[in-house]
Amino acid sequence: MYKKILLTSICALLGYSFSAYADFELCKDVFPNRQIPVSQEQGRDLCFDGFAVYYSPTQKKPIYTAEVLSRELLAEAPLERTNLFYEEARLPAAERSHLDDYRGSGFDRGHNSEAATKRTAGAMAQSFSLANIAPQAPEFNRGTWAIDVEKATRKYAQRAKGSVFVFTGTAGNLGAIGRGHVVVPQYFFKLVYDQASNRAWAYWLPNSNDARMSREAIISYQELVQRTGINFKIGNPSR
User: Fold this and answer.
1) N or C, fewer C-beta in 10 Å, the chain?
2) Closest-CA residue to 217 (of 134, 168, 144)
3) Residue 86 and residue 192: Cα distance in Å, rounded?
4) What is the pLDDT of residues 29-68, one digit of tens each?
5) Which domains, ranges and CATH numbers included, belong to the chain?
6) Are 18 and 26 in contact (CB under 8 A)?
7) Contact by Cβ (8 Å): 22, 36
8) What is the DSSP string of the chain?
9) Alpha carbons 67 and 117: distance in angstroms, whole number
């Protein structure tokens, strides 16, 4: 009982809406039709304010994150970026990535669920949890990914008639950084699902400073499921 109270207090100080190790049953609104994806990888369910992270305790980075966007939600989103990265206190020290792991690594701390979509100060702060971060090539993070993927996704959601569900994640292994051995992903992906039109597509790009947007970088939902082994539970959408 004491541990539960202590962990809940820590979450409250960090602005969390849910208890430590929150099951995805507690934040199902960020998933289409409240259906939780099925992944072949074992991970931790972490609920945040307006987004969810399925976290790998062995690779110490997100397997995927989930959030829902809309024109109305994004109208509330422009907030001043905090840039206050922090270690995820809800994870045991042996399972979490640490700030020191990224220092001098040559990689950016790349958001999966991006900061620019957060509409409250608490959600913005929580997006800087290292549980939501993966090592990302700096020019890719600040260039192609930020402009051709993240910004393009926000623009689409602002035009859409209803809710747009977004899953962002990583795949593959390029090695590891830091004493905590945080795995550097080979690929980043972002799945965009427009529920009203039943359309879905995914961006799939290498984690490289040389990565550029191309026709081949946009794949179908079915291809994403095949490459990741994750069933995102959105049926059989058109592209």
Assistant:
1) N
2) 144
3) 28
4) 999 999 999 999 999 999 999 999 999 999 999 999 999 9
5) 21-231 (3.40.570.10)
6) yes
7) no
8) -HHHHHHHHHHHHTT-SS-TT--GGGGGGGSGGGPPPEESS--EEEE-SSEEEEEETTTTEEEEEEEEE-HHHHHT---------B--TTS-TTTS--HHHHTTSS-EEEESS-GGG--SHHHHHHTTBGGGEEEE-HHHHHTHIIIIIIIHHHHHHHHSSS-EEEEEEEES---EETTTTEEPPSEEEEEEEETTTTEEEEEEEESSTT----GGGEE-HHHHHHHH-EE-S--S-B-
9) 9
Tokens 């905590």 sit on residue? 180
Single-letter code of the amino acid located at 142: R
CA distance 224 to 62: 16
The first and second tokens of residue 11, run together, are 């979450």
Q: Per residue in 94-116, pLDDT tens?
A: 999 999 999 999 999 999 999 99
Yes or no: say if 160 and 70 are a contact pair by the CB < 8 Å rule.
yes
- Tell me, what amino acid is at 93? A
Shortest CA distance to 115 belongs to which of 162, 151, 148? 151
**CA pair distance 170, 55, nearest whole angstrom:** 11
User: Which pTM was predicted?
Assistant: 0.90
Task: Tell me the backbone φ, ψ of residue 123, rounded to 5 degrees.
Answer: -65, -40
Asked whether the beta carbons of 123 and 17 are under 8 A apart, the reply is: no
Smallest CA-to-CA distance from 168 within 107, 209, 115, 210 is with 115
Q: Which of 147, 153, 145 is nearest to 210 (CA)?
A: 145
